[in-house]
Specification:
Largest sheet: 7 strands, parallel
Shape: globular
Number of strands: 7
Order of helices and strands: EHEHEHEHEHHEHHHE
Radius of gyration: 17 Å
Strand content: 15-25%
Number of domains: 1
Structural class: alpha/beta
CATH class: Alpha Beta
């Protein structure tokens, strides 16, 4: 089957973009994959069908990552169905970009609630099961915004920097129980989010990237799958940049 054969993997925010690519890559490598969605039931159904078409099991849940109760309920349901939670990918996120002086309290709170608290909620729910099993891998999808900061993204940069700190702290706490925690710090990846960039901003971003192009989801998913696999059994607390060299 592959290096994730029969493992139970949860991917948050998986109905499009990076999360979708990671979910499908895990399924291609033999994992049973559960994912949450919040809005598009049609996209969720399509992804579930595509995963099952790869010969593995799939579960879709309408769940808000910012709701700890919902996170617990989803994780418990996946454990009952798959038998174990071997991997968790905290991918769900959103942006509400504005300059600091224009940013509302809601803009600040919602980005931190989804991007940072959402990851905490799922990690907390899954960690109990992983610690008991003495195995598991948590992967937090963060951003170079959390490493170098980006103008107009005070809320997003703060949330993604928080994810990096959380990754390292969790790696130290959970390592003795056989649970690994790592992060991917992504640069500009071709998704719906980057497609909405004005052409002027896009060209300015490209000029800063040593490799001269935006990344694709195909640049991200294999690394994510590797970090979830036993091949990465001696990697924890790492923040791996997939950014074309932007944040060097």
């Amino acid at each position: 089957m592959g290096d994730l054969a029969s493992k139970g993997i949860i991917v948050t925010g998986a109905t499009r973009g990076i999360g979708r690519a990671i979910a499908l890559e895990a399924a291609r490598r033999g994992a049973n994959v559960a994912f949450n969605y919040l809005q598009s039931e049609a996209r969720a159904a399509a992804l579930k069908e595509e995963i099952e078409g790869l010969g593995v099991r799939a579960m879709a849940f309408r769940a808000d990552v910012g709701d700890l109760k919902a996170a617990r309920e989803m994780v418990n349901a996946v454990k009952r169905e798959f038998g174990a939670i071997d991997g968790l990918v905290n991918n769900a996120g959103l942006t509400r970009d504005k300059l600091l002086v224009m940013m509302t309290e809601e803009d600040w709170a919602e980005v931190l609630r989804v991007n940072l608290t959402g990851a905490f909620n799922f990690a907390r729910a899954a960690a109990f099961m992983m610690m008991k099993a003495k195995r598991g891998a948590i992967l937090n999808v963060t951003s170079i915004s959390g490493l170098i900061g980006m103008a107009g993204q005070v809320n997003y940069s703060a949330a993604k920097a928080g994810l990096i700190g959380m990754t390292k702290a969790m790696a130290k706490e959970l390592g003795r129980m056989g649970v690994r925690v790592n992060a991917l710090a992504l640069g500009f990846i071709e998704t719906d989010m980057t497609a909405a960039l004005p052409e002027e901003n896009r060209q300015a971003a490209l000029a800063m990237i040593p490799l001269g192009r935006f990344g694709t989801v195909a640049d991200v998913a294999p690394t994510a799958a590797y970090l979830l696999s036993d091949a990465a059994s001696y990697i924890t607390g790492a923040v791996i940049q997939i950014d074309g060299g932007l944040a060097m």
